[in-house]
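Database export, one record per block. Field names are fixed; values are copied verbatim from the stored entry.
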Amino acid sequence: MIYFVSGVDTDAGKSIATGWLARQWLAEGRRVATVKMVQTGNVGASEDIARHRAMMGVTLPEDAQGLTAPQVFPYPCSPHLAARLAGTQVEPERIVAAVEEMSKRYDIVLVEGAGGLAVPLTETLLTIDFVRAQGWPIIFVTGGVLGSISHTLLAFEAMAARGLTVTQVIYNRYPGRKDLTIDNESCAYLRAAAARFFPQAKWEELPALTELRAATSPLPSAPPSPPPAPAPGVAATFPANLLLTGKPAVVVGGGRVGLRKTRSLLEAGAAVKVICPEALPEFDALGITRVARRFDPADVAGAKVVIACTDDKHVNRAVLAAARERGIWCCCADGHWVEGDFIVPASFKTDNVQVAISTNGRSCRTAKEVKETLARSLQRCSPGVLFIHGIDRAVALPSEEALSRRLTFLNGLYGWCFLRTCNRTELIAWCAPELIESGLLQHALHFPREAYALRGEEAMHHLVMVLAGMRAKMIGEFHIVGQVRDALDRARAAGWAHGPLQQVYATALERAQAIRAAVAPLIPQVEVEQLALEGASGRVVIAGTGALGQAAIAQAHRQGLDVTVLYHSRPLPGEDCRPLADWREAVRGANRFLAALTVREALFEAADLPCPAYDLGAPRNIHGDANVRDLDDLRGDYLRRTGALEAILARAEAAYAERTP
């Protein structure tokens, strides 16, 4: 039996719950294995698998074969981005093959996901849709932190809407919460919600056992940590500018934080050595000494200053301990900064002026806001307003880097990002009214004549409705939220989007979530296979034998249709099954074609299909648009046909008005 373990977010405790369940079932005499579907932030091996094994008290030979961690990427982020940064992409079929092989060797296989259910595996495939295609039942992990009730209810709705089977809901009390009022209320509330959504699911509470803490201590491969220190807090600081010209400095960490610290040290004239197994490609263009391996305490010898900025708190504390032993000043760029010797405050330069802001640890956000406010004041520009310029379709434009070169020199443009989807191309900007009125910004983009230009409250209304899924072909779709967030993340990493634009997004997203909640009861729930087979007659061809494919086959039989099934690896007993490779022969004489596969790229050509085709796959199964309808088409048409669309849009506008000051 295969179970998929998911949770409300990255820190829900999925790894702990997976190891705990595996240990329980092992004690009952069952043959249990765990698989980490995609592991990010690791090189070569999965730390979550190591944690499972520590809790289970066993080792599995398949760990060394790569079957229990089929996809591992070094950058700690969502799978689709981690794979892209590694120069590749997640291969869903590789995950499926590994899990199926493990299921042949063990009675139970627990497949732990990466992050929450809506985390993208690829650019077009969400985790929840991948799991639905496999038909794996879900074990869902939640807890009592602030926000988990909302996140859990949204996850419950998403799973219920897709017809997923939830066998267990685990409430995570590990390692215990300080605010028991919130913890206990959340537990009771979510238990009642789980019973409403999934009455068949078993409710369990993960206890705060001391052996769980021991089992999840740092892995043997992690560097030793110094003795525990007081929790991070507020610390008085003494402002000073270090004179580092020609002096050795060590940076441990090759991510974005390490890159910023390294560039700052180089600007100060320091001779920088960077220690890390993997580093961003931008380091290659810097005049540094690069040591491509894990940190060794001897690396700090001879340095005047050391900065620890990895994404592993154990490594950072090991760097701090090594520097402390040698009397070297060290900055720990994480939650343990109070234990270090200095901090690097938020700062900016303009002409010959350098400004640094520190709140003594009280609020990094305040320091950044003050920095950005001062920087804007020094530029002597008017206050900004939200401006959106775009068109409701994909438009061929130069690369974002090329467009940024056009925009960089526009006075009064404080921040921007580009949103590009299959049915939307937009510039979302925070800029001076004078710049909008000049028309220079619109001229720099060369959008088609029918493009819209919105500012102020009109632009905010548009952004909220886009995030709420009210401007989509499929009303209420969720993908757009991730697409806007990814666009902002790219812009922020490139230095194009700053505080005001991020705040606009946060405000718009809050209003959009309220609209989604308001319209949810008005969106009718209908199975996509029913829509795809509506009005069908004669013989239909269905490609795919996963959960969605089997649901379509069952629906076709209920309608009395003749069914031909195209299968990838195993035919379905009792069906007229043919291999996928024979699809051109199979579709001859068919009256309808349904594609419901999880594939890396399209397998079928629309031009070669002699009948109406419905692409239900993720990502797209059919190349070309001739005579092909997809999920968005089906659901959008259904809403219009039933008259639900008008009511949904009216309720959305009312909800927007309720949330607008």
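Remark 1: The CA atoms of residues 14 and 141 lie 6 Å apart.
Remark 2: The first helix runs from residue 14 to 27.
End of record.
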